[in-house]
Write a structure and sequence with these properties.
Radius of gyration: 27 Å
Organism: Acuticoccus sediminis
Number of strands: 8
Family: Belongs to the ParB family.
Strand order of the largest sheet: 1-5-3-4-2
Protein name: Replication protein B
Structural class: alpha/beta
Strand content: 5-15%
InterPro entries: Chromosome_partition/occlusion, ParB/RepB/Spo0J, ParB/Sulfiredoxin_sf, ParB_N, RepB_N, SoPB_HTH
GO molecular function: DNA binding
Shape: elongated
Distance between the termini: 62 Å
């Protein structure tokens, strides 16, 4: 188990673990088995302890919560291979999934709040010569908003959930549980508004643009710095969407040579947007820089990762937007800045 997951499980289980220090039995109410049970029930009733039963069940009796933050249909053997290997090595699933009971469907007993990937893996094993493997669950009583926060907390500790899946989950939760109030949601999940905004921006990208990427799940919040500016102006947005559709149609038609990853795709979209910018007024065309074959306005490195964007403020000034999380490195950004200084602010002779 990774250190992230160990830390998460430690936090999650801290409220239900019993004290490990020796207990002074003379202070316990009652005696024997019945007395101990009475004391435990009293602790649970008072809130001093939490009783969340765990058990191994048939995964076929568990359905995935319709608001689960993972795209269950996108799971496959490659995405679950490490977990499958771990379960096989241990002979069982070690970290329980968090579920709640259901009573509205005779085909299911539980609803999976956290643990869709574990559910898929156990099902796969049972269908592939390991019927003895069962699904370990921990039963909770949760509202939908509580279920969302627990699911988010668990998956923040995992690296296999993509930014796009998390972003879409946040956008749904914003309307479902927080009445569109981003500040309230950020407070409830204990994150900054700026951090949350980047995920929401990713989830709000046009669907046709997202689907045009070779693998939409490669999209990250670090790419928002390059994509958001080229979607603001109507003419640039239209050009970007036209280019996205063209790339998608060429791929569907078997045309080779198109973008094969997210940075290459973003580079093509930036070029399409800047082509529109260059066709604007002469003043704008004069203030826009060029580098490495990339169109004016946004400067990218040789791999297509955006470094910075230059906008003409007036005849005496430029406005720079630095994409410090756009995928490029510092050396390339420094080189781009030096080029700009040499072009717009030449050294005295």
């Amino acid at each position: 188990m990774s250190s992230k997951n160990r830390n998460f499980m430690s936090d999650l289980a801290s409220s239900v673990e019993q004290a490990t220090e020796p207990v002074d039995r003379s202070t316990r109410r009652g005696g024997g088995v019945l007395g101990g049970r009475s004391n435990r029930l009293a602790e649970i009733a008072s809130g001093a302890a939490v009783d969340n039963p765990q058990e191994f069940v048939d995964p076929a009796r568990c359905r995935i919560w319709e608001r689960h933050n993972r795209d269950y249909t996108a799971l496959n053997y490659d995405r679950c291979r490490d977990l499958i290997d771990s379960i096989l090595a241990q002979g069982k699933q070690e970290v329980p999934a968090i579920v709640r009971r259901v009573s509205d469907d005779r085909h299911y007993d539980y609803e999976v709040i956290c643990g869709a990937r574990r559910h898929w893996s156990v099902l796969w094993l049972r269908r592939n010569n390991h019927p003895e493997i069962r699904y370990l669950i921990e039963v909770r009583t949760l509202t939908d908003e509580q279920a969302f926060r627990i699911s988010d907390l668990e998956n923040r500790a995992r690296e296999d959930l993509t930014d796009l899946e998390r972003a879409r989950d946040y956008l749904k939760a914003l309307g479902l549980y927080y009445n569109g109030r981003q500040k309230d949601m950020a407070k409830r999940i204990n994150q900054s508004e700026a951090w949350l905004s980047r995920y929401l921006d990713l989830a709000r990208l046009p669907p046709e643009l997202v689907e045009a990427f070779p693998d939409p799940y490669e999209l990250k919040i670090s790419h928002i710095g390059a994509l958001k500016p080229i979607l603001k102006a109507d003419d640039m947005r239209a050009a970007v969407l036209v280019e996205a559709r063209r790339i998608s149609e060429q791929r569907d038609g078997g045309v080779v040579g198109g973008p094969t990853n997210a940075p290459e795709m973003i580079r093509r979209l930036v070029i399409a947007a800047e082509r529109v910018a260059r066709s604007g007024t002469p003043a704008k065309a004069q203030t826009a820089p060029k580098r490495s074959g990339i169109g004016s306005g946004t400067i990218c490195d040789d791999a297509g990762a955006p470094l910075l964007r230059v906008d003409g403020k007036d005849r005496r000034a430029l406005t720079l937007t630095l994409f410090h999380k756009g995928g490029g490195d510092r050396a390339a950004a420094e080189a781009a800045l030096r080029d700009l200084l040499d072009r717009y602010w030449p050294k005295p002779s």
